[in-house]
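All the exercises in this workshop are built on plain-text protein records. Instead of coordinates, the fold is spelled out as a row of discrete tokens. Once this layout is familiar, the rest of the handout is easier to follow. The record below serves as our worked example for the rest of this section.
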Amino acid sequence: MSRPALTKKQKDINPNPAYWDHFDQWWKQDFSWDGLANHEIANHHDDRSLQDYWREEEGNLFPCGENGEEWTRFHLPPHDQAGNTTSKCGVTQQDWALKEWKDWRKTILSKLDQANEYTPSPLSPRKALWLTGCAAFGA
């Protein structure tokens, strides 16, 4: 385990230190709104970043993190590294009717369709993984 002992908040979320080690690695990749600008879309024909790909979410960002990072609802984790929960934590069936989550499923399915429609070049036969970093966490 690379972190000190877990806090009560962290243990309440998940008492397994391996979970937190994995979460720390994911967090370091920085899929916050600003961080998405540093992630290029793999195998794409231009130099678009993940921030470009998720641009329509820019007006609907959520705060999370000690430094005031903002996140799309698709990349927003259910908690920060300290165990402070976000509005994504504990989303219930009723919550899916709320404005911020209402078209979540429609949008993510549309993004999957876009990724499936992309035809990579013959030199790069893999499909692009445009949903990199999304934090579904059981959603």
User: Anything to note?
Assistant: The chain has one domain: 13-117.
